[in-house]
Amino acid sequence: MEKEISAKYVTAGLILSEAKNFAKKILVPGADIFECAEKIEEFILKKGGKPAFPVNLSFNENAAHQTPDWNEKIVLRKDDVLKVDIGVHIEGYIADCAFTVNYSEKYGKLIEAAEQALSNAFSILPNNPTIGEIGGRIEKIILEMGFKPVDNLTGHGLEQYLQHAPPSIPNIENRSKARLENGRAYAIEPFVSTGDGHVREGAKANIFCLQEIKAIRNVHSRKILGHVVENYKTLPFAERWLQRELKMSNFELKVGLKQLMHEKIIKAYPILHDLHGSYVAQAENSFIKMEKQIIPLVVENDGKAKGT
What we know:
- The structure is a single chain.
- By secondary structure, the protein is an alpha+beta fold.
- The protein has 2 domains: 220 residues, Creatinase/methionine aminopeptidase superfamily (Creatine Amidinohydrolase, Alpha-Beta Complex); 62 residues, Arc Repressor Mutant, subunit A.
- Helices cover 33% and strands 24% of the residues.
- The strands form 5 sheets. A 5-stranded antiparallel sheet has the order 8-7-9-17-18. Strands 1, 2, 4 and 5 form a 4-stranded antiparallel sheet that branches. Strands 3-15-11 form a 3-stranded antiparallel sheet, with no helix packed on it.
- Strand 4 and strand 5 form a beta hairpin.
- Helix 1 runs antiparallel to helix 2, helix 3 packs antiparallel against helix 4 and helix 5 crosses helix 7.
- The chain starts with a helix and ends in a 12-residue tail after the last strand.
């Protein structure tokens, strides 16, 4: 990896470290989730980065892809298990992290299992493990602590303007003998569940990304497409971003998005959930793999890299 590119990953990671700390301060019981999402993304922009995807604030059995609608009224409760997934990019080079909060202390062990799985996976990275071995280490910790790893959510590579690049890094053991390549960026993200450890797509989706640029006749769709190409490229974006930035009516926006999906110009990311009544925790950090070391991208206030 060229030094100029690695520097952009590292800068994104430094901004993300600050954004993570900021998010922890404002995401407290009684907090308005829409306002928190907007504030976290605004914080990233003020620090000189850009959101790599809409802040995911996924509740309880929802594991991923939950972000508030425009002015949606959801308040964080003491008993909620909230996954906070944040990404920052510098010219498309992405740092990605996640953590879980619960203020009732009922689900502390669940959250600890996700954090321990992440930490243990990071601890073997300098030994150049196979992808299967990474998944096995994650699964072992989670099972030993009495929970289930989510078997169909994975870590991933990070490439310019591509949040989920190959390879998939599983949260369960598999037979993959492939190894992570030097000079590339990756994210590891264990998901831990009290359910059956398998997520399904929900009916709701308000996060999208560009699939293919094609001509389209609908005027609302053309307006949305032009904005997406110019501002987000192939990174995910939120419907609420478009409502704020394009000043379109709700009807115009819905019509435009529906047509873009129909033409397969954009795709939707439905909310992913485990069994109703279950709880899911998540922990994540991203890193650059070098020949003799790894460079974690998110570092805590004490200077310790999260996941190590």
